[in-house]
Amino acid sequence: MASIIGVETLQHTNGTTAATIDSSGRIKKPNQPRFRARNSGITNYTSTGAMSWNTEDFDVGNNFSGSTFTCPIDGVYFFAFNVFANTGHSANVDMFHNGGIIGRAERGTTAGGYETMGFSLIFPCSANDTVLLNLNSGQVHTNGDLNFFTGYLVC
């Protein structure tokens, strides 16, 4: 025989709300780690290295800082980014997990205009693991709301 627990709010013993359930069964987890970073205005990346972001649209848990997301707990995370390859240049952007490459976006030499490059992935992480983007070669830029680096805890 199945048991049914009827609740609208799940809380930690300290009173922090972990989840709410509405009358249709939708679950909202207000403290689920997540972030979205971008650059206000146009930022050109012409030197290899970590790509920094100067604007956080949201950062639940304050786990993102400048260029790096630090996983607060063990789990499976979703990450994605989008940048523009500069006209007349090729580019490689790597996503690093604890200093090792877990994905690469590559763009050959762009002939006319800027071309979008990026990807998304789901990846298991442990507490205190770090994830960041690194310009490996070439030139890219970001342009305000059009480009971003984002991530969140899936489960």
Characterize the structure shown.
The protein has strands spanning 9-11, 17-21, 27-28, 34-45, 49-50, 55-60, 64-65, 68-70, 75-85, 91-97, 100-107, 115-125, 130-138, 140-153. By secondary structure, it is mainly beta. It has a single domain (32-153), classed as Jelly Rolls (Sandwich).
**Annotation field: number of helices:** 0
CATH structural architecture: Sandwich
The share of residues in helices is under 10%
Query: In oligomeric terms, what are we looking at?
Result: single chain
The global form is elongated
First-last Cα distance:
28 Å
Largest sheet: 6 strands, antiparallel
* Alpha carbon gyration radius: 19 Å
User: Which CATH class is shown?
Assistant: Mainly Beta
Q: Give the amount of beta strand, in percent.
A: over 45%
Mean pLDDT: 93
The number of domains? 1
Count of extended strands: 14
Identify low-pLDDT runs.
none
Offer a concise description of the structure:
The chain is mainly beta.
Topology record:
Elements: E1 9-11, E2 17-21, E3 27-28, E4 34-45, E5 49-50, E6 55-60, E7 64-65, E8 68-70, E9 75-85, E10 91-97, E11 100-107, E12 115-125, E13 130-138, E14 140-153
Antiparallel strand pairs: 1-2, 2-3, 4-6, 4-14, 5-13, 7-8, 8-13, 9-12, 9-14, 10-11, 10-13
